[in-house]
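#struct-pred
JK: can someone run the complex with C2E? inputs below
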Amino acid sequence: MQRSEILIIDDDPSICRFVARVCRDSGFEAIERTDCADIETVLQSSRLKLIVTDLQMPDCDGIELMRLLAGVRTDVPVAIFSGFDPRAPNTAEAFGRSIGLQIVETLQKPLSVAALKRLFRGAGDQVVLAPEEELQRAIRNHEVRLHFQPKVSFRAEDFGRVVGFEGLARWHHPVQGVISPDRFIPLAESSGLIGELTDDLIQYGLEQVAEWQRNGETWSLAINISPHILEDRGLADRIAQLAARAGVEPSRITLEITESGAMADPTRTMEILTRLRLKGFKLSIDDFGTGFSSLVQLYNLPFSELKIDKSFVMDIDDREEAQVIVRTLIDLAHNLSLQACAEGVETMAEWSQLLDYGCDRIQGYFAGRPMPAEDIPAWAEEWETRSKSITDMDRQRAAADG
Ligand code: C2E
Ligand code: CA
Ligand code: CA
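RT: done, C-alpha coordinates with the ligand placed:
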Protein backbone atom coordinates (compact mmCIF):
# COMPACT_ATOMS: atom_id res chain seq x y z
CA MET A 1 0.00 0.00 0.00
CA GLN A 2 1.30 3.47 -0.82
CA ARG A 3 1.89 5.69 2.17
CA SER A 4 0.23 9.08 2.68
CA GLU A 5 2.46 12.08 2.08
CA ILE A 6 3.43 15.11 4.12
CA LEU A 7 5.01 18.10 2.41
CA ILE A 8 7.72 19.84 4.45
CA ILE A 9 8.84 23.32 3.38
CA ASP A 10 11.76 25.03 5.14
CA ASP A 11 14.77 26.77 3.66
CA ASP A 12 17.01 25.24 6.32
CA PRO A 13 17.92 21.74 5.04
CA SER A 14 18.76 20.49 8.55
CA ILE A 15 15.26 21.38 9.77
CA CYS A 16 13.73 19.71 6.71
CA ARG A 17 15.71 16.54 7.41
CA PHE A 18 14.79 16.55 11.09
CA VAL A 19 11.07 16.99 10.42
CA ALA A 20 11.21 14.40 7.63
CA ARG A 21 12.67 11.83 10.01
CA VAL A 22 9.88 12.30 12.57
CA CYS A 23 7.42 12.20 9.69
CA ARG A 24 8.71 8.83 8.43
CA ASP A 25 8.79 7.45 11.98
CA SER A 26 5.10 8.39 12.16
CA GLY A 27 4.34 6.29 9.09
CA PHE A 28 4.19 8.94 6.37
CA GLU A 29 6.20 9.60 3.27
CA ALA A 30 8.10 12.91 3.61
CA ILE A 31 8.49 15.30 0.70
CA GLU A 32 11.17 17.87 1.55
CA ARG A 33 11.46 21.25 -0.18
CA THR A 34 13.95 23.99 0.67
CA ASP A 35 12.57 26.42 -1.92
CA CYS A 36 9.20 27.10 -3.56
CA ALA A 37 10.25 26.26 -7.11
CA ASP A 38 8.18 23.16 -7.94
CA ILE A 39 5.74 23.15 -5.06
CA GLU A 40 2.72 23.39 -7.33
CA THR A 41 3.52 19.99 -8.82
CA VAL A 42 3.89 18.36 -5.40
CA LEU A 43 0.54 19.85 -4.38
CA GLN A 44 -1.26 17.89 -7.09
CA SER A 45 -0.69 14.57 -5.31
CA SER A 46 -3.84 12.83 -4.13
CA ARG A 47 -1.84 11.19 -1.33
CA LEU A 48 -0.91 14.53 0.25
CA LYS A 49 -2.34 14.68 3.80
CA LEU A 50 -0.61 17.65 5.40
CA ILE A 51 1.63 20.61 4.59
CA VAL A 52 4.07 21.88 7.20
CA THR A 53 5.76 25.10 6.26
CA ASP A 54 8.09 27.84 7.33
CA LEU A 55 6.72 31.17 6.16
CA GLN A 56 10.09 32.83 5.87
CA MET A 57 11.48 31.51 2.63
CA PRO A 58 14.15 33.39 0.73
CA ASP A 59 12.50 32.95 -2.69
CA CYS A 60 8.92 33.84 -1.76
CA ASP A 61 7.44 35.57 1.27
CA GLY A 62 4.86 34.06 3.61
CA ILE A 63 1.89 35.74 1.96
CA GLU A 64 2.99 34.68 -1.51
CA LEU A 65 3.52 31.15 -0.29
CA MET A 66 0.07 30.95 1.31
CA ARG A 67 -1.54 32.36 -1.83
CA LEU A 68 0.30 29.74 -3.86
CA LEU A 69 -0.98 26.96 -1.57
CA ALA A 70 -4.53 28.30 -1.55
CA GLY A 71 -4.46 28.60 -5.33
CA VAL A 72 -3.91 24.86 -5.73
CA ARG A 73 -5.16 23.05 -2.61
CA THR A 74 -7.49 24.14 0.17
CA ASP A 75 -8.52 20.63 1.20
CA VAL A 76 -5.14 19.75 2.75
CA PRO A 77 -4.50 21.08 6.27
CA VAL A 78 -1.51 23.37 6.80
CA ALA A 79 0.72 23.74 9.88
CA ILE A 80 3.03 26.73 10.19
CA PHE A 81 6.49 26.87 11.77
CA SER A 82 7.33 30.13 13.39
CA GLY A 83 10.74 31.16 14.57
CA PHE A 84 10.26 34.74 15.64
CA ASP A 85 7.69 37.00 17.27
CA PRO A 86 4.91 34.74 18.63
CA ARG A 87 2.37 37.30 17.40
CA ALA A 88 3.29 37.20 13.75
CA PRO A 89 1.98 33.66 13.17
CA ASN A 90 -1.41 34.68 14.56
CA THR A 91 -1.64 37.23 11.82
CA ALA A 92 -0.39 34.67 9.33
CA GLU A 93 -2.98 32.16 10.60
CA ALA A 94 -5.74 34.72 10.23
CA PHE A 95 -4.62 35.62 6.75
CA GLY A 96 -4.30 31.95 5.74
CA ARG A 97 -7.83 31.24 6.95
CA SER A 98 -9.19 34.30 5.18
CA ILE A 99 -8.02 32.90 1.85
CA GLY A 100 -9.46 29.46 2.54
CA LEU A 101 -6.51 27.52 3.97
CA GLN A 102 -7.15 25.11 6.83
CA ILE A 103 -4.46 26.22 9.26
CA VAL A 104 -4.40 23.53 11.94
CA GLU A 105 -1.53 24.62 14.11
CA THR A 106 1.41 26.98 14.55
CA LEU A 107 4.51 25.29 15.91
CA GLN A 108 7.10 27.41 17.67
CA LYS A 109 10.73 26.82 16.76
CA PRO A 110 12.85 25.13 18.04
CA LEU A 111 10.63 22.23 17.07
CA SER A 112 10.21 19.33 19.44
CA VAL A 113 9.83 15.70 18.43
CA ALA A 114 6.79 15.40 20.72
CA ALA A 115 4.98 18.35 19.09
CA LEU A 116 5.70 17.02 15.61
CA LYS A 117 4.53 13.52 16.51
CA ARG A 118 1.30 14.91 17.87
CA LEU A 119 0.81 16.93 14.70
CA PHE A 120 1.43 13.91 12.49
CA ARG A 121 -0.91 11.73 14.53
CA GLY A 122 -3.58 14.32 13.75
CA ALA A 123 -2.79 14.04 10.04
CA GLY A 124 -3.26 10.29 10.20
CA ASP A 125 -6.70 10.58 11.67
CA GLN A 126 -7.93 12.61 8.69
CA VAL A 127 -10.58 14.35 10.71
CA VAL A 128 -10.55 17.11 8.15
CA LEU A 129 -11.72 14.62 5.59
CA ALA A 130 -13.77 12.59 8.04
CA PRO A 131 -16.82 11.10 6.47
CA GLU A 132 -20.05 12.76 7.37
CA GLU A 133 -21.16 9.60 9.12
CA GLU A 134 -18.41 9.98 11.71
CA LEU A 135 -19.52 13.50 12.52
CA GLN A 136 -23.16 12.52 12.47
CA ARG A 137 -22.46 9.74 14.94
CA ALA A 138 -20.57 12.19 17.15
CA ILE A 139 -23.44 14.68 17.14
CA ARG A 140 -25.98 12.00 18.05
CA ASN A 141 -23.68 10.77 20.87
CA HIS A 142 -23.33 14.38 22.10
CA GLU A 143 -19.56 14.18 21.72
CA VAL A 144 -19.51 17.80 20.55
CA ARG A 145 -19.91 20.08 23.54
CA LEU A 146 -19.45 23.76 24.34
CA HIS A 147 -16.52 25.11 26.26
CA PHE A 148 -17.12 28.50 27.84
CA GLN A 149 -14.93 31.57 27.59
CA PRO A 150 -15.64 34.52 29.92
CA LYS A 151 -16.62 37.98 28.74
CA VAL A 152 -15.65 40.66 31.28
CA SER A 153 -17.24 44.09 31.67
CA PHE A 154 -15.28 47.34 31.38
CA ARG A 155 -18.18 49.61 32.20
CA ALA A 156 -17.99 51.72 35.34
CA GLU A 157 -21.07 50.18 36.98
CA ASP A 158 -19.82 46.60 36.90
CA PHE A 159 -16.12 46.92 36.07
CA GLY A 160 -14.22 43.62 36.04
CA ARG A 161 -17.38 41.56 36.53
CA VAL A 162 -18.11 38.51 34.41
CA VAL A 163 -21.06 39.40 32.20
CA GLY A 164 -21.32 36.01 30.57
CA PHE A 165 -19.58 33.41 28.46
CA GLU A 166 -19.17 32.57 24.81
CA GLY A 167 -19.81 28.92 24.04
CA LEU A 168 -17.18 27.44 21.71
CA ALA A 169 -17.64 23.98 20.22
CA ARG A 170 -15.18 21.18 21.07
CA TRP A 171 -15.43 17.63 19.77
CA HIS A 172 -14.48 15.22 22.56
CA HIS A 173 -13.43 12.39 20.30
CA PRO A 174 -13.18 8.99 22.02
CA VAL A 175 -9.80 8.24 20.43
CA GLN A 176 -8.31 11.52 19.29
CA GLY A 177 -9.15 13.65 22.30
CA VAL A 178 -10.37 17.22 22.00
CA ILE A 179 -10.73 18.49 18.44
CA SER A 180 -11.03 22.23 17.74
CA PRO A 181 -13.98 23.69 15.79
CA ASP A 182 -11.89 24.82 12.83
CA ARG A 183 -11.45 21.14 12.05
CA PHE A 184 -15.09 20.10 11.98
CA ILE A 185 -17.39 23.12 11.63
CA PRO A 186 -16.53 23.47 7.91
CA LEU A 187 -17.41 19.78 7.45
CA ALA A 188 -20.65 20.24 9.38
CA GLU A 189 -21.48 23.17 7.11
CA SER A 190 -20.65 21.50 3.83
CA SER A 191 -22.46 18.28 4.76
CA GLY A 192 -25.63 19.96 5.99
CA LEU A 193 -25.15 18.72 9.57
CA ILE A 194 -24.66 22.20 10.99
CA GLY A 195 -28.35 22.67 11.80
CA GLU A 196 -28.53 19.50 13.86
CA LEU A 197 -25.22 20.31 15.57
CA THR A 198 -26.28 23.86 16.42
CA ASP A 199 -29.61 22.71 17.84
CA ASP A 200 -27.80 20.20 20.06
CA LEU A 201 -25.30 22.82 21.26
CA ILE A 202 -28.02 25.39 21.93
CA GLN A 203 -29.90 22.80 23.95
CA TYR A 204 -26.76 22.04 25.95
CA GLY A 205 -25.92 25.74 26.39
CA LEU A 206 -29.44 26.47 27.66
CA GLU A 207 -29.12 23.71 30.25
CA GLN A 208 -25.95 25.39 31.52
CA VAL A 209 -27.61 28.81 31.71
CA ALA A 210 -30.51 27.26 33.61
CA GLU A 211 -28.03 25.81 36.08
CA TRP A 212 -26.24 29.14 36.47
CA GLN A 213 -29.63 30.73 37.15
CA ARG A 214 -30.36 28.15 39.84
CA ASN A 215 -27.03 29.08 41.45
CA GLY A 216 -28.01 32.75 41.45
CA GLU A 217 -25.65 33.82 38.65
CA THR A 218 -26.89 36.36 36.10
CA TRP A 219 -24.42 35.31 33.38
CA SER A 220 -25.50 35.35 29.78
CA LEU A 221 -24.42 32.98 27.03
CA ALA A 222 -23.27 33.76 23.50
CA ILE A 223 -23.67 31.09 20.84
CA ASN A 224 -22.10 31.10 17.38
CA ILE A 225 -24.54 30.80 14.51
CA SER A 226 -23.20 29.67 11.17
CA PRO A 227 -24.22 31.73 8.14
CA HIS A 228 -25.46 28.44 6.67
CA ILE A 229 -28.36 28.26 9.09
CA LEU A 230 -29.32 31.89 8.75
CA GLU A 231 -31.36 30.73 5.79
CA ASP A 232 -33.47 28.50 8.02
CA ARG A 233 -36.81 30.28 8.51
CA GLY A 234 -37.72 28.02 11.45
CA LEU A 235 -34.62 28.99 13.44
CA ALA A 236 -36.13 31.80 15.51
CA ASP A 237 -39.17 29.77 16.60
CA ARG A 238 -37.06 26.73 17.42
CA ILE A 239 -34.57 28.60 19.60
CA ALA A 240 -37.41 30.42 21.35
CA GLN A 241 -39.12 27.09 22.09
CA LEU A 242 -35.92 25.53 23.44
CA ALA A 243 -35.31 28.57 25.67
CA ALA A 244 -38.86 28.50 27.01
CA ARG A 245 -38.59 24.79 27.76
CA ALA A 246 -35.29 25.34 29.63
CA GLY A 247 -36.81 28.28 31.56
CA VAL A 248 -34.24 30.74 30.22
CA GLU A 249 -35.11 34.36 29.31
CA PRO A 250 -34.18 35.06 25.66
CA SER A 251 -32.37 38.23 26.82
CA ARG A 252 -29.75 35.97 28.42
CA ILE A 253 -28.85 34.55 25.04
CA THR A 254 -26.74 36.34 22.45
CA LEU A 255 -26.38 34.92 18.97
CA GLU A 256 -23.03 35.71 17.35
CA ILE A 257 -23.10 36.02 13.61
CA THR A 258 -19.98 36.78 11.60
CA GLU A 259 -19.84 39.98 9.65
CA SER A 260 -19.41 38.16 6.36
CA GLY A 261 -22.27 35.77 7.20
CA ALA A 262 -24.70 38.51 8.07
CA MET A 263 -23.91 40.53 5.00
CA ALA A 264 -24.00 37.76 2.40
CA ASP A 265 -27.72 38.25 1.75
CA PRO A 266 -28.77 41.18 3.94
CA THR A 267 -32.45 41.19 2.99
CA ARG A 268 -32.98 37.58 3.87
CA THR A 269 -30.78 37.77 6.94
CA MET A 270 -32.67 40.85 8.07
CA GLU A 271 -35.95 38.94 8.26
CA ILE A 272 -34.54 36.15 10.42
CA LEU A 273 -32.45 38.43 12.61
CA THR A 274 -35.36 40.78 13.17
CA ARG A 275 -37.55 37.88 14.26
CA LEU A 276 -34.89 36.73 16.73
CA ARG A 277 -34.57 40.27 18.07
CA LEU A 278 -38.35 40.60 18.45
CA LYS A 279 -38.37 37.41 20.48
CA GLY A 280 -35.90 39.06 22.85
CA PHE A 281 -32.59 37.44 21.85
CA LYS A 282 -29.51 39.63 21.59
CA LEU A 283 -27.44 39.68 18.43
CA SER A 284 -23.74 40.24 18.12
CA ILE A 285 -21.77 40.86 14.97
CA ASP A 286 -18.64 38.70 15.13
CA ASP A 287 -15.14 39.13 13.70
CA PHE A 288 -15.94 42.70 12.85
CA GLY A 289 -13.42 44.37 10.60
CA THR A 290 -12.58 41.28 8.56
CA GLY A 291 -15.60 41.39 6.24
CA PHE A 292 -16.90 44.00 3.90
CA SER A 293 -20.14 45.32 5.29
CA SER A 294 -21.30 48.75 4.39
CA LEU A 295 -22.30 51.06 7.19
CA VAL A 296 -25.83 51.17 5.84
CA GLN A 297 -26.23 47.43 6.33
CA LEU A 298 -24.77 47.61 9.79
CA TYR A 299 -27.20 50.38 10.62
CA ASN A 300 -30.18 48.43 9.28
CA LEU A 301 -29.53 45.11 11.02
CA PRO A 302 -30.71 44.77 14.62
CA PHE A 303 -27.43 44.07 16.45
CA SER A 304 -26.69 44.88 20.08
CA GLU A 305 -22.95 44.14 20.20
CA LEU A 306 -20.00 44.49 17.87
CA LYS A 307 -17.06 42.13 18.39
CA ILE A 308 -13.72 43.48 17.29
CA ASP A 309 -11.70 40.76 15.66
CA LYS A 310 -8.69 39.49 17.56
CA SER A 311 -6.35 40.10 14.63
CA PHE A 312 -6.55 43.86 15.38
CA VAL A 313 -6.59 43.54 19.16
CA MET A 314 -3.42 41.48 19.19
CA ASP A 315 -1.51 44.21 17.41
CA ILE A 316 -2.61 47.21 19.44
CA ASP A 317 0.46 47.44 21.63
CA ASP A 318 2.87 47.76 18.76
CA ARG A 319 1.08 48.82 15.59
CA GLU A 320 -0.36 52.25 15.22
CA GLU A 321 -2.68 51.15 12.38
CA ALA A 322 -4.24 48.55 14.65
CA GLN A 323 -4.75 51.18 17.35
CA VAL A 324 -6.52 53.45 14.89
CA ILE A 325 -8.76 50.62 13.66
CA VAL A 326 -9.71 49.47 17.15
CA ARG A 327 -10.51 53.00 18.35
CA THR A 328 -12.52 53.68 15.21
CA LEU A 329 -14.51 50.47 15.64
CA ILE A 330 -15.25 51.27 19.29
CA ASP A 331 -16.48 54.75 18.28
CA LEU A 332 -18.50 53.25 15.45
CA ALA A 333 -20.15 50.79 17.84
CA HIS A 334 -21.02 53.55 20.28
CA ASN A 335 -22.38 55.85 17.60
CA LEU A 336 -24.70 53.06 16.51
CA SER A 337 -25.66 52.35 20.17
CA LEU A 338 -23.89 48.98 20.15
CA GLN A 339 -21.66 47.58 22.87
CA ALA A 340 -18.05 47.09 21.77
CA CYS A 341 -16.45 43.78 22.76
CA ALA A 342 -12.77 43.20 22.01
CA GLU A 343 -11.71 39.57 21.63
CA GLY A 344 -8.28 38.00 21.82
CA VAL A 345 -7.06 40.09 24.78
CA GLU A 346 -3.98 38.28 26.03
CA THR A 347 -1.97 40.82 28.02
CA MET A 348 -2.32 43.45 30.71
CA ALA A 349 -1.01 46.05 28.22
CA GLU A 350 -3.85 45.26 25.79
CA TRP A 351 -6.35 45.27 28.64
CA SER A 352 -5.27 48.76 29.81
CA GLN A 353 -5.22 50.17 26.32
CA LEU A 354 -8.76 48.93 25.58
CA LEU A 355 -9.90 50.39 28.87
CA ASP A 356 -8.48 53.77 27.82
CA TYR A 357 -10.25 53.49 24.47
CA GLY A 358 -13.62 53.09 26.20
CA CYS A 359 -14.28 49.50 25.12
CA ASP A 360 -17.33 48.02 26.92
CA ARG A 361 -16.19 44.46 27.46
CA ILE A 362 -13.34 42.14 26.66
CA GLN A 363 -12.76 38.47 26.04
CA GLY A 364 -9.45 36.64 25.78
CA TYR A 365 -6.87 34.41 27.41
CA PHE A 366 -5.90 37.25 29.76
CA ALA A 367 -9.18 36.80 31.65
CA GLY A 368 -9.70 33.14 30.84
CA ARG A 369 -9.45 30.45 28.18
CA PRO A 370 -12.47 28.51 26.97
CA MET A 371 -13.19 25.89 29.67
CA PRO A 372 -15.61 23.03 30.28
CA ALA A 373 -18.69 23.95 32.34
CA GLU A 374 -17.44 22.14 35.42
CA ASP A 375 -14.31 24.34 35.61
CA ILE A 376 -16.25 27.61 35.72
CA PRO A 377 -16.84 27.86 39.51
CA ALA A 378 -13.12 27.49 40.33
CA TRP A 379 -12.18 29.95 37.60
CA ALA A 380 -14.80 32.48 38.80
CA GLU A 381 -13.41 32.33 42.32
CA GLU A 382 -9.85 32.88 41.11
CA TRP A 383 -10.99 35.73 38.82
CA GLU A 384 -12.69 37.50 41.72
CA THR A 385 -9.28 37.87 43.42
CA ARG A 386 -7.29 38.51 40.27
CA SER A 387 -9.67 41.15 38.90
CA LYS A 388 -9.30 43.14 42.14
CA SER A 389 -5.53 43.31 41.83
CA ILE A 390 -5.83 44.24 38.14
CA THR A 391 -8.23 47.06 39.08
CA ASP A 392 -5.71 48.31 41.65
CA MET A 393 -2.96 48.28 39.05
CA ASP A 394 -5.18 50.23 36.65
CA ARG A 395 -5.93 52.82 39.33
CA GLN A 396 -2.24 53.29 40.10
CA ARG A 397 -1.51 53.65 36.43
CA ALA A 398 -4.28 56.22 35.98
CA ALA A 399 -2.96 58.18 38.99
CA ALA A 400 0.59 58.10 37.62
CA ASP A 401 -0.60 59.22 34.16
CA GLY A 402 -2.24 62.15 35.41
P1 C2E B 1 -14.77 32.96 17.03
O1 C2E B 1 -16.23 32.94 17.24
O2 C2E B 1 -14.15 34.23 16.52
O3 C2E B 1 -14.16 32.53 18.42
C1 C2E B 1 -13.01 33.11 19.00
C2 C2E B 1 -11.83 32.20 18.86
O4 C2E B 1 -10.69 32.84 19.41
C3 C2E B 1 -11.98 30.90 19.64
O5 C2E B 1 -11.29 29.87 18.91
C4 C2E B 1 -11.23 31.20 20.93
O6 C2E B 1 -10.77 30.05 21.59
C5 C2E B 1 -10.10 32.04 20.41
N1 C2E B 1 -9.55 32.94 21.42
C6 C2E B 1 -10.20 33.49 22.46
N2 C2E B 1 -9.40 34.28 23.18
C7 C2E B 1 -8.19 34.23 22.59
C8 C2E B 1 -6.93 34.84 22.88
O7 C2E B 1 -6.76 35.60 23.85
N3 C2E B 1 -5.90 34.56 22.04
C9 C2E B 1 -6.06 33.74 20.96
N4 C2E B 1 -4.99 33.50 20.19
N5 C2E B 1 -7.24 33.14 20.65
C10 C2E B 1 -8.29 33.39 21.46
P2 C2E B 1 -12.00 28.46 18.68
O8 C2E B 1 -12.69 28.04 19.92
O9 C2E B 1 -10.96 27.56 18.10
O10 C2E B 1 -13.12 28.76 17.61
C11 C2E B 1 -12.77 29.10 16.31
C12 C2E B 1 -13.98 29.49 15.50
O11 C2E B 1 -14.84 28.35 15.27
C13 C2E B 1 -14.88 30.50 16.20
O12 C2E B 1 -14.32 31.78 16.03
C14 C2E B 1 -16.19 30.30 15.47
O13 C2E B 1 -16.18 31.00 14.25
C15 C2E B 1 -16.17 28.80 15.16
N6 C2E B 1 -17.02 28.11 16.15
C16 C2E B 1 -16.71 27.72 17.39
N7 C2E B 1 -17.77 27.12 17.99
C17 C2E B 1 -18.79 27.16 17.11
C18 C2E B 1 -20.15 26.71 17.12
O14 C2E B 1 -20.67 26.18 18.11
N8 C2E B 1 -20.90 26.92 15.99
C19 C2E B 1 -20.38 27.54 14.89
N9 C2E B 1 -21.17 27.71 13.84
N10 C2E B 1 -19.11 27.97 14.84
C20 C2E B 1 -18.31 27.78 15.92
CA1 CA C 1 -17.79 34.08 18.15
CA1 CA D 1 -14.82 36.31 16.73
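RT: quick notes.
The first helix runs from residue 13 to 25.
The longest strand covers residues 162-173.
JK: thanks, will look after standup
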